Each structure stands twice: as structure tokens, then as C-alpha cells.
Amino acid sequence: MTGTSKDSILNSALVPHQYPTGNGTATEFSIDPAKARDAFAADLSDKQAAIIGTIQRPVSELAFSEPSGVPAWKTLPSWAVVATSDRAAGTDAVRAHAERAGATITEVDGSHVIMISKPEVVAEVIQSAIAKVG
């Protein structure tokens, strides 16, 4: 997603790490802890952003390129919470994907970790989705 986003700065914050595999090496990425707040968690407290920058799990490079199979949104109803200041995935990319999925979209001022900064909004969207399909 970040490759097509004009809003994302995530690529400039990623640190590659090589690790051995049975066939050579592979790469995984983590966010530079010094850049975690700006790129990932701008609406959290300094303490929360520092914790995220410290305890984050790396992501395999395959997560950015490996196909995930048939998308569920093609046959199931979808909901999306679009954070208007998402500098990780990019608000523009998240919104475009939600629109393509025909999702019911809720836009909220916040960062990529909107589920931490605005959990009540995310919970309301989940409860609304359950009510519609339940």
C-alpha cells in the first residue's frame, strides 16, 4: 500500500534486517524507534509512541509483495476506519482500498494506530458491523 501513497512516509522510517533461511537470507523490516512517532503513532503520547517503537515486531518483506489470495471484500460486506493522518499506510491508500471494497467508511482524525488513540470509535464501527450482519 505505501508504494502508491502520497501520504505515507513509512518507507523512509523502515530499517531492514537480514536473517538466515534454509535457502540463504531473507529480509524483515522494523520502524526506526526514533521515527516511530512521526511515521506510525503521531497522535499517541510520547511514552506510548516510545513503547511502540521499542516493542514492535518486525514484518517480513513478503508481507509487501506476496499475494494473499482471494480478497474477502469481494463477497462480504466491509467496514473501514480511515485515519485522516495515517502516515504509515497512507490515508489516501487506505481510503482508496476501502472505496474499492465498497466499505462503509468512517473517517477519524488520527494516526495509523487509531485503534489505540480512538478505541471507542473503532469499537463503535465493529459493533455497527455486527449489528448489520448479525
Helices and strands in order:
Elements: H1 10-13, E1 14-21, E2 24-31, H2 36-39, H3 46-55, E3 59-60, E4 79-83, H4 91-100, E5 104-108, H5 114-117, H6 119-133
Account of the 3D structure:
The chain is of the alpha+beta class. Helices cover 35% and strands 21% of the residues. It is built from 6 helices and 5 strands. It has helices spanning 10-13, 36-39, 46-55, 91-100, 114-117, 119-133; strands spanning 14-21, 24-31, 59-60, 79-83, 104-108. The strands form 2 sheets. A 3-stranded antiparallel beta sheet has the order 1-2-3. A two-stranded parallel sheet has the order 4-5. Strand 4 (79-83), helix 4 (91-100) and strand 5 form a beta-alpha-beta unit. The longest helix is centred in the C-terminal third of the chain and has 15 residues, at 119-133. The radius of gyration is 16 Å and the shape is globular. The protein starts with 9 loop residues before the first helix and ends with a helix. The model has no long low-confidence stretch (mean pLDDT 93).
**Largest sheet descriptor:** 3 strands, antiparallel
Q: Give the neighbour order of strands across the main sheet.
A: 1-2-3
Number of helices: 6
Overall geometry: globular
Question: What ranges have pLDDT less than 50 throughout 5 or more consecutive residues?
Answer: none
User: What portion of the residues fall into strands of 2 or more residues?
Assistant: 15-25%
Looking at the chains present, what oligomeric state does this protein adopt? Answer: single chain
| SSE arrangement, N to C | HEEHHEEHEHH
